[in-house]
Amino acid sequence: MASAVIVCIVLVAVTERPVFTGFASGLVGFLGFVLVALAALGRFWTSLFIAGRKDATLVQVGPYAACRHPLYLLSLVGTFGLGLVTRSVVLLLALTGIAALLHVGAMRAEDALLESTHGAAARRYREQVPALLPDGSRYSVPELLQIQPRVVWKAVLDAGSLLLALALMQAAHGLQHAGAFAPWWRLP
Q: pTM for this one?
């Protein structure tokens, strides 16, 4: 996925993307920024519930009470946001499509691993909790959660990488509009 994001950053710098211009361009860019920021914060919050415990415990609290794969959901939201920041329908669909394909396989593999590790409890969890679309009525947060500093640091780096991609995408867009890069071709 990182390769696709890097390619998109380069394409933003060297292509003209006339689909969103003027006010619409600013609005689409802002919406993309908001989605990436929410995804980064959400991934950080969600990581606190699972990181360091996911191999030994069937986590069913916090975001994992509302949906089985909140990290993948938030990655899709962030990727969609990055796609919006490109201000290109083609790049938006390509990034989101690549992420969706990668995540579907990963979700199936994780569900199978949970079932092989936790048996009937994982099957009940899969039957009761939606995979991606959260059921807010199920959300619950424990009074106490043990957090390991190395896990928090990893979650910070994860969220930071999404924000870095956003910053690089915005910088490429800004530099191209400032004339630092001449467009090579038009991209819808």
A: 0.91
